[in-house]
Amino acid sequence: MLCFGRAYPAISRILPSCVRPYSSAVIPDEKGFQLGGIYPPLTTPFNADETISFDKLADNLTQYARIPFAGYVVQGSNGEYPFLEKEEKLQIVKFVKDFIKESNKPLIAGSGCESTKATIRLTEEMAACGADAVMVVTPSYFKISMNDAAMIAHYTTVADSSPVPVILYSVPANTGIDLSIDAIQILAKHPNIIGLKDSGGDVTRIGSIVQKTRGQDFKVLSGSASFLLPSYLAGSVGGVCALANVLGDVLCHMHSLYEKNIIDKELQRRLIDPNNMVTRRFGVAGMKAALDMFGYYGGPNRSPMLSVSAEARLVIKKAFVDNEFVPQSR
């Protein structure tokens, strides 16, 4: 049973219980972690002073527990992970894992850093804090040097060392780098790399990746609700979709329909404009505004990201209402 109304200890009192060095890597047996379904990339709730609000995170998780999500993702783009300190990232992993433990749903944590060494260390620490798998975004600061050879070496070294399965994460809108199909095809053969979250929006690319990795125990997840249904038709098995934070029941319904071979084209079309509001147009700030509208806690962003204006909130609300998703308190 989920626990409500708990008091949550400070970072300094949480970290020692989960952060410990690993003497050696432990590779899971033959990719025992299976991807599939809808995973919300959780936002990080902040108080007015930009400290993390664990009470509000608990409130959101309590509501999400009523939705048939396949699992949860923390420290993705929607979690504002570049703005979080390492200790905060680990604290969130431990908190969410403890909160959802009795649901038996997996927790995926974003452990990608710019260097391979830092990624390995953060991966180990997140696993120690309860992450069941890690999602590793492409390094991107030195773009000119991030060729296929560098990416293959990076991900291979991380996966060799990781005590939990690794999911590749390609999000070119944020990083400027699209992990190549050739590199993915090679990495898919690694026994500890189980899949890819692809947020690029090119459905033909998703289809090509699925085709070229056939025969491998490797799955592709759509990175956006805007192309969720087309990605299913191209061979993806689910999605890590920002819009799932707000319309999780709707996205899970679409997944359920597809599993029954029911193609709801109208529902997919209705998702496009609301999704654009919380991704391409207004980003995480738009997402948090939408959460507030639908009875979850969105709250402020961490600086330098600003909250959306009152005028933008009206635009966001209209996009949902026009597509028959009516904001309501919970």
Q: Looking across the biggest beta sheet, what order are the strands in?
A: 1-8-7-6-5-4-3-2
What is the count of helical runs? 13
Strands, total number: 8
CATH class descriptor = Alpha Beta
Structure description:
With 330 residues, this protein is of the alpha/beta class. The chain has one domain (30-262): TIM Barrel. The protein contains 13 helices and eight strands. It has helices at 11-18, 54-64, 86-100, 116-128, 148-161, 172-175, 181-187, 203-212, 228-234, 244-259, 265-281, 283-293, 310-322; strands at 37-39, 72-74, 107-110, 133-137, 166-170, 193-198, 219-222, 238-240. Helix 3 links the parallel strand 2 (72-74) and strand 3. Keywords: Lyase, Schiff base. Pyruvate binds at residue 240.
Identify the notable features of this structure and list them briefly.
single chain, 330 residues, alpha/beta, TIM Barrel, eight-stranded parallel sheet, 8 strands, 44% helix, 10% strand, lyase, Schiff_base-form_aldolases_AS, EC 4.1.3.16, DapA-like, 4-hydroxy-2-oxoglutarate aldolase, mitochondrial
